[in-house]
Design a protein that fits this description.
Strand order of the largest sheet: 1-2-3
Distance between the termini: 15 Å
Largest sheet: 3 strands, antiparallel
Strand content: 5-15%
Order of helices and strands: EEEHH
Number of strands: 3
Shape: elongated
Number of helices: 2
Helix content: 10-25%
């Protein structure tokens, strides 16, 4: 077990997590602000393959390092998504 300080990014290269917010956004990086909206696919009863494609796309946008996140789209706090 380890405590990850809120403003370090030394764990980014090993991160293999994605998150889904309560508002239906797929977040591939704790420092990503916008995310990808999965709700339209779920509400329109899209195929499992379409949903899987969206997850693949989200993972492909995952930065190698959180420092590469666009500065104007960075979250102000990981607590915004329960991070």
């Amino acid at each position: 077990m380890a405590i990850i300080p809120a403003f370090t990014r030394n764990f980014c290269s090993k991160c293999n997590k994605i998150r889904i917010t309560s508002s239906g956004k797929i977040i591939s990086c704790l420092y990503e602000k916008e995310g990808m909206n999965i709700l339209p696919l779920l509400r329109n009863n899209c195929s499992h393959e379409a949903i899987a494609d969206l997850f693949r796309q989200a993972v492909s946008y995952k930065p190698e390092n959180g420092k590469h996140a666009v500065s104007n789209s960075v979250r102000t706090s990981m607590s915004e998504i329960g991070g």
